[in-house]
Amino acid sequence: MNTVNKLLKAYNKDITLKPNEWTIKHQYISGMKKWIANIVPYELLVRDIKEAVEALDTLSEDGIFYDKFPDKIETPDYGDNWGVTANYIEINNRAVAEMQNNKCRRGLISTIKLLPAIPPSAKSWANCIILSQIFPNIYGDGYNKPADVENSIYGIKLNVGYSQNIIDYDIIDKITPFEQFKAFNDLAHFHGLKTGFRTVISADQIKIARTDGQDLVFDWNNEEHFNLFLNSHIELVNAGFEAIFIDSAKHIGGYDMGNYTGVGALPSYEQMQYIIHEIRSRTGNTHLSFVGEKSSGDFERYEKLGLSTGTGFIPPDDFHSVKKEAIEHKYSKNYSPGVEISNDNDTGGRSYEERLTRINNSLFAYEYPSDKLASFMQMEDLFPLRYDTNTHHLMMSNPSYSTDGTANSHFENLFAKDDGREYNKKVAELFSYSLNL
Questions:
Q1: What is the mean pLDDT of residues 162-182?
Q2: Do 115 and 121 contact (CB within 8 A), yes or no?
Q3: What is the dihedral of CA 269, 272, 273, 277, to 10 degrees?
Q4: Would you say residue 295 has pLDDT above 90?
Q5: How much of the chain is in helix, strand and coil states, percent to nearest 5?
Q6: Which helix (H) or strand (E) holds 309?
Q7: Tens digit of each residue's pLDDT (9 = 90 or more) over 215-256
Q8: Rounded-to-integer distance, Cα 240 and Cα 237, Å
Q9: What is the C-alpha to C-alpha distance for residues 7 and 364, in angstroms, rounded to an integer?
Q10: How distant, in Å, are the alpha carbons of 93, 290, 347 from that of 108?
Q11: Of the candidates 304, 302, 320, which has an alpha carbon nearest to the alpha carbon of residue 312?
């Protein structure tokens, strides 16, 4: 049984699927590409898992509705170097998790429910979802905390499975965490998306969990720790992820440490080069994309490291500056810098118009579509957040915005409402022009 059907059965759902009428009424169509827009996330997050699967089936690009989810799903094929031109959209899967009183869970299920509202990949380049959290965060994993209490997503534990914020541990007797990731990836690929996840490499931001309860601080020079890091990432690639966003990548090997804001030692250049090579080699996936945070400046250094692209220095508000860089790097098909619409450190305050301008520039500022640079967006660039929070705040803390202790109230209050719907519609219009280029 494929993992999507296994997931449905784990929630006691029938695996026979039917077209979803609400999805048909809210779909945007650009050629063969279909997705949901002019919505607020609440409308999707309150659905059950079967409705989410039926929505994706209803939006099938080939126009075929499958009565049962197909057994064999292929990732969208853009060749080995797809990462150089992709649009990376980071979804904070912890922030959209079910907040039931003080518990936080099922972030992966919530992200599946959002997938129909993510524009699928274009004719010439891929759209790739990056998940903010995979591994447990060091303090308070599985719980939400008040908005003014730190609960950083940047501090992780290895050797203790995956985050309780993300995986549904209530059903692991029916579908394992690995299989839950596999189901997510199959559904994303079916919708025409690539997938990836964020990882951290600063040693003091990683703990090694032990059975005696005494966690160890990660040490890049400890062979056991090194192999645990490597093998943990290989397992995720084997579950279907195709991109890894590397936090603090610019500083690997001690480069430009004057601007380093992480905590703890970083891997040497040779260590990271080995990790990237081994992940590709051991998984047999030559097409993986490795993305470096702020990997700008010495592009040859990052290309030889094995990166595909990185968040860059290009002024995203200036169409002509973006186009100039796109033309300059048009033949750089192994590595080129990307355009930041916003990043995980975004503290808000940018107007909707400014965000739309940046999205426009990232999608259209080039001479030919094949010249396009990669771009980097956050969930907030598709689905605006409520006025008193921002992307970075939700990376550093894990508040519930529920007014009555229920998950649905959190889903309703996390995002902007009427103005968010109108903005989402405008984003869809930009993507609709780009998907068939």
A1: 98
A2: no
A3: 170
A4: no
A5: 40, 15, 45
A6: strand 309-311
A7: 999 999 999 999 999 999 999 999 999 999 999 999 999 988
A8: 5
A9: 38
A10: 6, 22, 24
A11: 302
